[in-house]
Amino acid sequence: MADEKLITCEEAFRRLQDYLDRELAEHETEEVNRHLAVCEWCASEYRFERSVIEQVRNKLQGARPPEDLMSRISASLQGEGE
Amino acid sequence: MPDGTSQRQFESLLAPLVGSAFGVALRLTGNRDDAEDLVQEASLLAFRAFGSFAPGTNFKAWFFKILTNRFYQWCRKHRREPEIASVEDAPEIYLYTQTRKAGLHEGGGDPAELVLGKLDEEQVGAAIASLPDDFRVAATLYFMEQLSYQEIADILECPVGTIRSRLHRGRRILQKALWEIAVANGIVEPGEAEE
């Protein structure tokens, strides 16, 4: 590759949220990955932020709808057709 | 007027995502009763508009658009107490900074898990519920459905840049809310005095 200059910690920090959301362009992601491979401080921040997202997701997934919700919806739609 | 055939078609599309819709509605409204009402009302509205749905396109996105619009109407009827987290007072990587100050990055474990692992679903839900409405909607779709910025933007009919901003700022506010809940419940002791 012609240019594998490492990005700075400041730049890695600036890209943190987009990186976590997989919204960076491929080359930008690769630049972040190269930085994280050599900068433990930034890698620690990235790991932590990713873990926060995963922890929050896991906690929020537990809600179950009432078992009869779909049947109640169906009954209310039935009234629409009459 | 929708007929029996269209009702069956509609329900065949809706049934697989009723669980997801309820989960999103629960995080938006903050309680099960209102979440059930929201999903039922959105389902009725969607059914009435089913003629405008283009077969083969993304029913989930179409339905969630109706659900979130109905939620915004719900917000106007249920003006919340001004106990809403501030969008201003939420620095970057807030939780990372606080857990460092509290010494949770020593010892080799996952410091995020040390805090968030001890919060229950209700407490995390309360943190989401404390977000201002626009941030809460974007954050809920992001965390619950793992949608991209573009997918959320399509549902909320907002520019992608707006969604990106709401998610980034919303997560900062959320982190502060989670920390405050953890401190209030004795899960963590704050480290140095907060600035």
Overview of the structural elements:
- The complex is a heterodimer of chains A (82) and B (195).
- In chain A, 71% of the residues lie in helices and 0% in strands.
- Chain A has helices at 9-14, 16-20, 26-38, 40-60, 69-81.
- The radius of gyration of chain A is 22 Å and the shape is elongated.
- The mean pLDDT of chain A is 91.
- Chain B is mostly helical.
- Chain B is 66% helix and 0% strand.
- Chain B contains ten helices and no strands.
- Chain B has helices at 4-14, 18-29, 32-48, 59-77, 94-101, 111-116, 121-129, 133-145, 149-156, 160-184.
- Chain B is elongated.
- Chain B starts with a helix and ends in an 11-residue tail after the last helix.
- The mean pLDDT of chain B is 90.
- At the A-B interface, α2, α4 and α5 of A face α1, α2, α3, α5 and α6 of B.
List keywords for this structure.
heterodimer; A: 82 residues; mainly alpha; 5 helices; 71% helix; B: 195 residues; 10 helices; 0% strand
Write the layout of secondary structure elements.
The complex is a heterodimer of chains A (82) and B (195).
Chain A: H1 9-14, H2 16-20, H3 26-38, H4 40-60, H5 69-81
Helix pairs in contact in A: 3-4
Chain B: H1 4-14, H2 18-29, H3 32-48, H4 59-77, H5 94-101, H6 111-116, H7 121-129, H8 133-145, H9 149-156, H10 160-184
